[in-house]
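Figure 6 in text form: structure in, sequence out.
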């Protein structure tokens, strides 16, 4: 299945997105609220009957939550809180903490951060990680010049989705096309798309520049290229 996360608006510190299904109908929305003097923000995501919040947390708390999946200190960690995920979705409850983002009494707690692996002396490769319930998703981002960015989503060692970002940007607005094997992997792709935005494209305090430009880069890292699944 596919969804398009389409940025509708931005101002100095905030951003707003629509979530569109394959028929072009809006099935959800995303808002990002930032603040003066910070490059971080608070995400409020509504996708069908699912509500998700993402917000920055401290290093000590992030280290405790990620201890099972990495020995590194998580970089730019975000808390993930979600309501409305079905009990049989595969997201076993890591923590129970009701939050006011949906009608379901179940709350799922996770963590989102940037990690890396060492690949020789003074050489390391970075990637994004989503750990929610008992599932780990890794996002490996590779640029292919004018074809844009292809970010492959892995659940464990299995590729389950892709985020494609075109290199063309109009009026400072960014779009992310998520392709995934099923609905829950699509939800994970949505969360990871938000992290891609805050990590790379969010420019708090920057004035909107009207017009279209192309943001092009080409990945040469062999490990990232080996992980890339282009659909």
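Output sequence:
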């Amino acid at each position: 299945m596919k969804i398009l996360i389409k940025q509708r608006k931005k101002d100095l510190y905030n951003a707003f997105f629509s979530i569109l299904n394959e028929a072009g109908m809006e099935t959800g929305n995303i808002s990002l609220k930032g603040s003066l003097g910070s490059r971080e923000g608070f995400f409020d995501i509504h996708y069908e009957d699912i509500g998700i919040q993402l917000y920055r947390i401290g290093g000590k708390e992030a280290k405790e939550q990620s201890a099972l999946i990495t020995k590194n200190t998580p970089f730019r960690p975000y808390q993930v809180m979600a309501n409305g995920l079905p009990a049989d979705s595969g997201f076993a409850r890591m923590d129970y903490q009701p939050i006011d983002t949906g009608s379901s009494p179940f709350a799922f707690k996770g963590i989102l951060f940037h990690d890396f692996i060492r690949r020789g002396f003074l050489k390391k490769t970075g990637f994004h990680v989503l750990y929610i319930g008992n599932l780990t998703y890794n996002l490996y981002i590779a640029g292919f010049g004018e074809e844009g960015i292809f970010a492959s989503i892995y659940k464990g060692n299995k590729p389950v989705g892709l985020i494609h970002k075109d290199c063309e940007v109009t009026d400072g607005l960014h779009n992310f096309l998520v392709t995934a094997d099923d609905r829950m992997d699509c939800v994970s792709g949505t969360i990871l798309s938000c992290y891609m935005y805050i990590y790379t494209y969010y420019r708090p305090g920057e004035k909107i520049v009207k017009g279209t430009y192309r943001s092009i880069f080409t990945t040469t890292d062999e490990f990232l290229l080996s992980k890339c699944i282009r659909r």
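Caption detail: The chain has one domain: 2-227.
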